[in-house]
């Protein structure tokens, strides 16, 4: 398989570098979460339940970008671990609200601290202005202002 001389070194692309950085921090966080008996992804659920009155399961799924089936499985595991509880919220017993238990709130605070420590390490070599600029650029990318919408990836 000979080269054409115009091949891109994908290790030098922005996407590759972002993915590598995300994996590095995700793996580091996963090790610390395991010590709390939390699986990766569950921290997103904990961090996205901010309301004492709970959140609808549908809203939570939107917040964490999880399919209903994935979220249901995750919540079942978290219920068994004593982190969350669910209550039916409509007369037909179909819609659920998700609440953090007391243990869930305590664990959430620990996860917040771990997250803040990772954030501090990530931005330690940046000036305040650079960190703000990076955050704005990531917001722009996440909002789809620069990247194609998901539908464009699926076609």
TrEMBL record:
InterPro entries: HTH_MarR-typ, WH-like_DNA-bd_sf, WH_DNA-bd_sf. Residues 11-143 form the HTH marR-type domain. Coiled coil: none annotated. One of its GO terms (molecular function) is DNA binding. Keywords: DNA-binding, Transcription, Transcription regulation. Gene3D superfamilies: Winged helix-like DNA-binding domain superfamily/Winged helix DNA-binding domain. This is Transcriptional regulator, MarR family. It comes from the Bacteria. The keyword DNA-binding applies. It comes from Micromonospora carbonacea. The keyword ATP-binding does not apply.
């Amino acid at each position: 398989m000979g080269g054409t001389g115009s091949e891109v070194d994908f290790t030098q692309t922005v996407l590759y570098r972002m993915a590598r950085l995300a994996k590095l921090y995700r793996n580091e966080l996963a090790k610390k979460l395991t010590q709390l008996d939390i699986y990766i992804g569950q921290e997103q659920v904990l961090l996205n339940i901010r309301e004492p009155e709970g959140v609808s399961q549908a809203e939570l799924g939107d917040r964490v970008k999880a399919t209903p089936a994935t979220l249901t499985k995750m919540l079942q595991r978290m219920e068994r671990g004593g982190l969350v509880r669910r209550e039916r919220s409509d007369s037909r017993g179909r819609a659920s609200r998700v609440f953090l238990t007391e243990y869930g709130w305590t664990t959430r605070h620990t996860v917040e601290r771990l997250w803040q420590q990772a954030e501090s390490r990530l931005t330690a070599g940046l000036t305040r202005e650079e960190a703000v600029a990076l955050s704005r650029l990531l917001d722009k990318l996440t909002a789809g202002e620069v990247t194609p919408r998901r539908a464009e990836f699926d076609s």
